[in-house]
Write a structure and sequence with these properties.
Length: 345
């Protein structure tokens, strides 16, 4: 057990493919953080979408050998779980305070302070992307860059609000039932992955369905409530001066939201990559499509894959390719299928 700035970390002895869980006490409750890699390296923090954790939201990306080599070669990974979303989590006490999106963003600052981290790279999916963007807006000096997958930035529309209320009521009365899982799979994946009468459900969707069974319904309701009460942060996006790479699947229900976000950011700092035939969770459904844009993006920081991978036909890049304009949408003009880069108007 270690103490730092009033926070407490408990090493629980559970190893996740080489990573170790730390439980960090914050002003808004305990946060589970899985740490992978050499802590002397720069930090990459991740934050998953609703009802997910690092195993169900980022496993596909980190199991993609080339993407994993790029990220693990350059970063120590800190997977932050929303409260009560970690593996084996107990139900949150009903008497505990209901957290807001801002509270969740403030927890990230306490996690960074606990581990003694300065400025970090951030990667989030949908709800997690919103929390990390909010964190970056509040603490600009602590964020090197943002990699956002199907991000949110506006307050919920009436249709999203109604949809979330239906899910919340189903969770309250029936728990993580089949209907809730169907709603969530629609949120995460494309039609092809979810399957239909003629096409069987994919292995990815089946694995996600099993992992959803492990979630405590009250814990999911708490995170959903925080996201459902989120404020619109569009007006502050222009003030973000960290480089931002946005991925969006063309079948994501949050497609227009991601396009809106990119359009409201400084074009000199943001690039939007559209992934064809994909839902919201690009990290699981088409992780390989993230590789080349991430390589270009990270080269802007002088980071690259280890030499044993540099001759891959997918990525004929070298550190000497770095240019100051690397992150402009024009220079991110990737034409390789299944990726299509959209340039903000």
């Amino acid at each position: 057990m270690a103490e730092s700035n009033g926070s407490v970390s408990v090493d629980v002895g559970t190893i996740y493919l080489g990573g170790k869980e730390h439980r960090v006490k914050t002003a808004c409750g305990v946060v589970s953080v899985i740490v992978y890699g050499d802590r002397e390296k720069p930090a990459l923090i991740t934050y998953p979408d609703l009802a997910l954790n690092h195993m169900s939201c980022f496993q596909g990306l980190f199991f993609c050998p080339e993407a994993a080599s790029l990220l693990l070669h350059n970063f120590c990974i800190y997977h932050i779980s929303p409260p009560g979303h970690e593996l084996g989590a107990a139900p949150i006490c009903p008497n505990d305070s209901v957290l807001s999106a801002e509270d969740l963003a403030d927890q990230i600052l306490e996690v960074l302070n606990f581990f003694g981290l300065g400025a970090v790279m951030c990667m989030g999916v949908t709800a997690g992307a919103y929390i990390l963007t909010l964190f970056a807006m509040k603490h600009r000096d602590r964020v090197l860059g943002l990699i956002l997958v199907s991000p949110l930035c506006k307050a919920p529309s009436w249709s999203e609000w109604f949809y979330n209320k239906v899910i919340s009521n189903l969770l309250y009365f029936y728990g993580m039932c089949g209907v809730v899982k169907e709603f969530l799979l629609q949120r995460y994946f494309s039609k092809e992955v979810r399957g239909n009468v003629e096409i069987p459900e994919s292995d990815i969707a089946q694995a996600c369905r099993r992992l959803l069974d492990e979630r405590q319904s009250i814990n999911v309701m708490r995170f959903l409530d925080a996201i459902d009460r989120r404020p619109d942060i569009s007006s502050g996006l222009k003030k973000l001066k960290c480089r931002t790479l946005i991925f969006i699947g063309d079948q994501s229900p949050f497609y227009s939201e991601a396009v809106h976000m990119a359009a409201n950011m400084d074009r000199g700092y943001c690039a939007l990559v559209e992934v064809q035939a994909c839902g919201s969770m690009v990290t699981e459904e088409q992780a390989h499509a993230m590789l080349i844009p991430m390589e270009y993006f990270l080269m802007g920081y002088g980071l690259y894959r280890p030499s044993c991978f540099t001759e891959s036909p997918r990525s004929p890049l070298s550190p000497s390719c770095i240019s100051p304009e690397l992150l402009s949408p024009e220079s991110m003009g990737l034409k390789l299928k299944p990726i299509k880069t959209r340039v903000s108007a």
